[in-house]
Please model this.
Amino acid sequence: MITEITIDFQEDWLALIKSNLLLDKYTIDKLSNKQICLFYFMIEHKKINQVSRKVFYSKEFCYPFEDKDKLNAIKEIEESIANGDDLSVYQSKSVMEYKNDMLLNDWGIHHFHLGKNYSDCFVNRTGDLLYVFFDEINAYFIDIKPHDFSNIDLLNIMTCNWSNLVNENVINREVAEYEELSKEDIMKLRKAGIMTPQYSNGKMILSPGGGYASDGTSWEVHDKCHRMLKILGNNESEIRKKFANIPFKISKLIFILKVDNFGRYYVYEKNNDYRLELISDHNY
Model:
């Protein structure tokens, strides 16, 4: 017997994440559904995993002993990194908005404000920023510099002090002649969504941050959004196949995607009040 099936997991999932984003006071009122999906994974991309890390310092890094407020802020960040605490309070307020961090997307470098006081759960903005690269177990303090996200010195310092961090991003071909791009060139290329290798310490290096699409959004973010929507679509198809011709009389089935208290997605059938697990893997 053919059963009428109502199901739209993508719409259910978008409703769930919209609710969570609004609850956490993110700005989403002008975003399309596709942008909501990207924003969800963009937030995750900008977050720094809360694990204890060891801090390494570049040869160029110097503590700002002449400025006690900045010095205290750096000491607090060091302690938070060692403890595996949440570092979002030192990030820009723009993490609450749908806005690409091109320094992170291109070179993989985070920046922290060094303010003394707090506003809306963030430290106050400062002209000088602490630039840091993270891997799973370490934090690399590059330098304290003014607010300039296309400053090639940041990449040069990172590659000079820790070449192992960019080995996977080195273009292995000889370059006879290469004119170093100015910061204005880098800004224009990023704005146009054009990924360009940079010449740094004798190597051609392409986007240690993983790179970005033509809209400036991280490739990783686009990939996760695409995979999530595909997984939801695959689950819809499998459930339709499984329940379309069941050998007993059920006139209508309404399947809804939900999330439990542990953040795990599951499927709820409304008319008969039962739960089933997602058929496809939905973990990241």
